[in-house]
Amino acid sequence: MPQGFGEVAEALRRSTVQVVSGSRRAQGTGSGVIWSEAGTVITNAHVALDNSARVQLWDGRWLEARVAARDARGDLAMLKLEAGGLQAVRWRDSRSLRPGELVLAVGNPLGFVGALTTGVVHASGAVNGLGRGRWVQAAIRLEPGNSGGPLADAEGRVVGINTLVVPGRVALAIPSELVGEFLKGGSRPALGVVVRAVADRVRGAGLLVLEVIRGSAAENASLLTGDLLVSANGRRLQSIDDLGDVLDGSVGGLLKIGFLRGDSRKEREVPVRLSTSRAEAA
To answer: CA-CA distance, 18 to 205, in Å (whole number)?
Structure first.
């Protein structure tokens, strides 16, 4: 390990928080990163399920937090704490990372507060099956509860927000520069569905609805799990990025969704709105 690694790890622990949000029925528990001394915390949208959350600092204090912005499609949320003088992280543009660099993650997996793991950068860029979005890919062990926590380099500079693990035990983190873009731009419009691109031999290509988020535009349009989304505003949907592009161009208007339910083709018009719900694909 590099000289001073223990001090680097301890500083990162002090800038990492535990986040609890939502109701008993649907509760999100994970980690977060203190992004500014003035009380800005970054976490995943799928951790911040509600408009408020409770945050535990490294010293054991619990604070109430307000969800100031959420980008469900990018799986990022910004929390605001009524506190100052917090120990904020330093960050580094992930595009300067090289495969093989040492990285460390801090989070609260499986109830272990402030747990630390180490690994190496595997790659950086798009991941097959997850659209054209960029990811920091690392060979590092993550467990439930690490979501929303920091992935940092050997100097403790945050290069990503830990989000999920894909087959092969490769951990994916949202790049730090995308966090910066989120802080500038805030929430993006969302439909309120979890989808997967499929090529059905009978029904053709489209986006299979895996889940409809409660209270979302998709639920109001009576979309159901198992529906196959095939078009949006006249554009064929063959990838998650296709739907995202249409949503980005439809702010303030109506979105006409074409979908298949069984053998029947249906259409719905739904108002496009800024996302306020939990993590979703689009």
So the answer is: 40
122 carries an active-site annotation? no
Among the options 31, 147, 176, 250, which is catalytic?
A: 147
**How far is 258 from 7, CA to CA, in rounded Å?**
55
Catalytic residue list contains 147? yes
- Among 46, 94, 122, 227, the active-site one is 46
Distance between the two ends of the chain, CA-based, in angstroms? 40
Catalytic, 46? Answer yes
Element housing 157 (H / E): none
The pTM assigned to this predicted structure is: 0.80
Q: pLDDT per residue over 141-198, tens digit each?
A: 998 899 999 999 999 999 999 999 988 789 999 999 999 999 988 777 888 888 888 8
Q: Which domains does the chain have, with CATH numbers?
A: 9-81 (2.40.10.10), 94-185 (2.40.10.10), 189-274 (2.30.42.10)
DSSP character at residue 91: B
The per-residue pLDDT for range 63-120, each reduced to its tens digit, is 999 999 988 788 899 999 988 889 999 999 999 999 999 999 999 887 788 899 999 9
